[in-house]
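Progress report, Aim 2. The chain analyzed during this reporting quarter is listed below.
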Amino acid sequence: MKTSRIAILTILVTIIVMAAPASAYISSQSLETKAERMVDIADGARDRVLDLVALVEANATAMQLIKDADLDEQFYGNVSLCVKTGTIVNGTAVTEDGEGWTYLNDANQSLLAEEYEDAIDNAREALAIFRDVLRSIYVILVDSGVETGELLDS
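Predicted structure tokens for the chain:
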């Protein structure tokens, strides 16, 4: 009887000891997955901003309306928040990394360094900037008289 109690106790202790590292591994895996997903979402948001900018720039009428409303500097100022140094914006190379690009780059670096909480925080900051840029560009398009529905349909 005493031997079976010791055996059961030993088995229970072994299970508990093995469960602790497994639990830590599972929760870190979950944080890693969350971080990867957040960085992917932020990267996708940046791509959407740049796709919209390319769409607007490809439409001569839209660009002329933005220039006529004297909103082209504001438009390109928003674009510069999303790009890295050396990117050509409005015919000029950007001289410093945009804030959104910086946060996204930091998120990617944190992800590579397995600093998942930092990756999530930086991705959130990047997302906030990209969201604000999209809103600003939309307001610029509306204020300049660009038919956004037609622009997006083209």
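The first helix runs from residue 2 to 58. Strands lie at 88-89, 92-93. These observations will guide the mutagenesis work planned for the next reporting period.
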